């Protein structure tokens, strides 16, 4: 079996291991908020496609991202260019039923910005679901590389250029450094610090915590 076949089985879009895990997490999320179809949701760092393919559609979803988003969306989805750590006043002053964020907290850029991200989560809604990969799971999830998160920066950048199972292989040294420096996995203690009034859930695989989720139901 070649590397491409292995990568497709692990992180492909349809019936891969990663896709199945995402589907299971999404089912867990919708069970946690049974009134989701009646809620207004702000998605920090997400994409409209996530919600469009969901079997349960909230009353309204506001998707914020610093990357360009597709503007061809249903009328119950709203999109904006916005930094979740530094929201414009027009968005920061709004109130929603639920804040949702999936695999974003590890990319915002260090402790100070994670603090600002968490502060915005608390301001925007009384309920939230904030998921991030767990630092001490043996497999680094972005590059699908064992123990990569514990290596020195230079070694991580080298691996980012060469590891055949990466979601997207880095094009060069600068690209690789950008990727690894903007990816900082956190642990339970940090998650509890940012979300002290939340219940911290453990998403497990083979008995090991794969990701951690801060949940507050309002």
TrEMBL record:
SUPFAM superfamilies: S-adenosyl-L-methionine-dependent methyltransferases (SSF53335). GO terms for biological process: methylation. GO terms for molecular function: methyltransferase activity. Keywords: Methyltransferase, Transferase. InterPro entries: SAM-dependent_MTases_sf (IPR029063). It comes from the Bacteria. This is Class I SAM-dependent methyltransferase.
């Amino acid at each position: 079996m070649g590397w491409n076949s292995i990568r497709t089985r692990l992180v492909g879009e349809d019936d891969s291991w990663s896709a199945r895990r995402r589907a299971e997490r999404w089912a867990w999320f919708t069970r946690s908020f049974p009134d989701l179809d009646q809620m207004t949701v702000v998605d920090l760092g997400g994409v409209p496609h996530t919600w469009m393919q969901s079997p349960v559609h909230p009353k309204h979803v506001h998707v914020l991202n610093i990357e360009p988003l597709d503007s061809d969306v249903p009328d119950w989805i709203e999109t904006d260019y916005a930094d979740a750590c530094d929201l414009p006043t027009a968005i920061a002053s709004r109130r929603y039923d639920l804040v949702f964020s999936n695999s974003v907290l590890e990319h915002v850029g260090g402790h100070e910005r994670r603090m600002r991200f968490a502060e915005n989560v608390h301001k925007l809604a009384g309920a939230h679901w904030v998921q991030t990969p767990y630092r001490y799971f043996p497999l680094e999830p972005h590059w699908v590389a064992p123990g990569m998160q514990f290596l020195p920066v230079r070694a991580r950048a080298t691996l980012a250029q060469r590891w055949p199972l990466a979601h997207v292989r880095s094009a060069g040294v600068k690209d690789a450094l950008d990727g690894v420096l903007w990816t900082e996995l956190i642990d339970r203690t940090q998650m509890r610090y940012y979300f002290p009034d939340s219940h911290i859930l453990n998403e497990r695989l083979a008995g090991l915590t794969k990701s951690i989720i801060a949940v507050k139901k309002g």
